Amino acid sequence: MSGAHFSADWLQQREPFDTAARDEAARHLQLAARFHAMAPPAGTPWRVIDLGCGTGANQRWLAPRLGGPQQWLVVDHDAALLRGCATRRQRPGFRGVHCLPAAGPRAASGHAALARGPSRHRVGLA
Question: Domain containing 26 — which CATH number?
């Protein structure tokens, strides 16, 4: 979808359906147990990169499930959606949320990745 722009209103309308799909996938994949097993040491934040973040729906769904301190890098090629995401991004425990505009169609989209330590501790959520 190179160069595609999405309406914030459309993304807001589909968010409940995306949330339901994420909830079902989380149950099937037993993500709560996986997140617990992967949790960083106390006081160390989760580091999350959300590529193609849109209005921040992945962050709104995932952040409360991770718990604890978190650092997010949110990336999108649509500056308007990125600005909207920035207005809703902070919550207690966040050490930082950084917005980064993607530079062209080669930027990946639609993916949140958790990075902590060796690659065996990384999980991606499509």
Answer: 3.40.50
